Amino acid sequence: MRVLAVVLLALSCAATAAAAGGGGGGAELPEFREAPAFRNGAACAGAPTIHIAMTLDATYLRGSLAGVLSVLRHAACPESISFHFLASSASPARRLASLRRALAAAFPTLSATVHRFDARLVRGKISSSVRRALDQPLNYARIYLADLLPRYVSRVLYLDSDLLVVDDVARLWATDLGPDAALAAPEYCHANFASYFTDAFWRRPEYASVFANRTRAPCYFNTGVMVIDLDRWRAGGYTAKLEYWMEVQKQEARIYELGSLPPFLLVFAGEVKAVEHRWNQHGLGGDNVAGQCRELHPGPVSLLHWSGKGKPWLRLDAGRACPLDALWAPYDLLRRHGARDDLLAAVA
Fold first, then answer.
1. How far, in Å, CA of 249 to CA of 29, rounded?
2. Cα angle vertex 234, ends 167, 230, to 5°?
């Protein structure tokens, strides 16, 4: 009986943690608190609209809401920001309605639109990777931003749902893409670029030659923070080019292991407009297997990104937080009944 009690207790704790993390296909979503209202000042008159795209699903909802709060908290003109949330068409209507209610509860006056991403677009194109989360269709929605967003949106800032912005996002939005670039992002040229592709890729000259005529030597960049010129994207047919490499991976040879990232490298590496590293202090979630704790990279910080397996809300709930997870905690809008809102007050 004692063993049974321990097992039941463990199952109960696991269910509680899953609910708090926003996971679970059929579970009800947790409740979220209303965030402080952030308003434009007089100096914002005539400020351009900043368009930000993020995904919206049950698993990462808690991270998405924290990310939105961080953007608004540090923006000089928060009411000039328009959010575009990408939600899977495969989600039941009831779940989508719950996601909308959670968003509205946390941000009643937010300028936001939910766009349905048709998961059938990537059916048959996704191959298994090193981490199951990377294989979800919504992880590929960023490839279709030019089709999902209205034509009047000519530029968009794509942000992952496991990050915090701790600077005025208008500075990133104002990135000069130059005369030709369709995409800007921080590059990491010290990384071993060859390791992002398999030996099978490098053995095939018809594959490896894709990098031969790039403007610069190809470098790794993280697709969780991107400034995209959608007009240039459409003119360049980049969605089809990304789909081509997904089909090669699925039908011809296994040329990579990391979900939606390698197709972006294959299409854009060497043609990316470089952004300061401060705008993507990535890897705070550790690697894709262990999710171990990591420290910040040297230099100034404008954006903290928990890319990797370890997510701050899950580690905090489990009592195994890494030191930097404490920076995420004040932006957590999860309602804990009976708990005080001292942390939320810290970002008001």
1. 35
2. 15
